[in-house]
Structures are given as structure tokens and as C-alpha cells.
Amino acid sequence: MDTRHSVTRCLRECGLDLRSAVRSRRRGRLDAARLRMTASAYDPDSSELITPYVQEVRLIAERATIELRGRLIEDRHTLVAAIHSGAVPVVVQYEERRSDSPALLDRWGRSVAEWRTAAALCRTRAESIVGGANLRLAHYWDAVWQRQSALDEDPRTRPQDWLPGRITLDADWNEPDSWLTAAPGAPSVLTTALRVLDGGHARAGRPAA
User: pTM of this prediction?
Assistant: First the structure.
């Protein structure tokens, strides 16, 4: 699902592809006259610069990335179920019986590794969506800046890092394992098994076999 073609198609469907630049610049020229002050007078984090257009682009990006995450979980539901069921014997063996079983942990670990690889690819696609959205904002603000500075004796150029409304992925994308749990961060069999796995394939106090 994470091929270059699918990313390009997703950007196009969201209206975040390169062809959206013309629409973004047109909207920027229209909005330039509506801002009470020149854009250059505002700090990029100023709430006055979160215009309806900026809100629209941010909403599109947010919705697209949420749908992308949901699609990953749906497409990988068999793998997710296997990870949940496989976590039980890992916890029983390592936490209750207090005995290592490298073969058992390695088998389960392969499923977890497959999930993490899929999540990493999904994040790459989400970053492409966010990048497309920020590119739309960049064209928009460049048009605003150019229209407002057209009458200046010394034409101003929009600084490259000046991008009000800049979009970033939320923190959940840094912890895709939390998507596997019903209550992220809450103690569970799965989180315990993941702790055992990430602890070096060994029970506390004993080296890995």
C-alpha cells in the first residue's frame, strides 16, 4: 500500500499534489487584501495568520493521515490479532514462569517486526502528505507576500522558514506500537510482552540465550 504510485494518488485525491499550486497562489492573492496588516508584520505563529484557507489545508492533512493510520490497522488486522494472541504465552513464560524461551520470543518478535516495518512505511506516506500540505501553504503565503509587497519601493522576499500554519505529524506517529492497544500507555499483556521483547530477549537479570 505504500508504493510511490499510492502516495502520488493519495496526494492528488487530497488536492495536495503539485497541480494545487495554482489554486493555492490564486487564493493567496485574494486573501492578501483581507489581512488587516501586511503578512510580514506578523510572527509566523500568530493566530491572526491561521486564515480559513490555512485551516482548510490543515484539516485535509489531518484527515488524510488519520485515514491512513486506520487503513493500516484494517489491512493488517490478521497480523494485529496474531500479535495480541502471541503476547499471552510470552508473558506467561517470561513473567509468570520466570523462564526464558528464545524460540518463542523470536517467533512472536517476527510478527512485531513485520508490524513495525509496515508502520514505518505508513509513516513515510504520512510524511509525504504533510509535505504536500506544507507545499500548498508555502505557495499560498508566497502569493500573499508578493501581492502585499508589490507596492513597496524595495520588493520583499518571503523568508524560506516563514510558514504560518506549518503542519507536523502528531506525536502518536512516533509510537506506532501504541496503536495496537485499546488504551495506549495503560498496562496490558501486550505492553508487557513488548517490554520483554525490547529488553533484549531476556528476563531481567539473565543474559539472552
Answer: 0.81
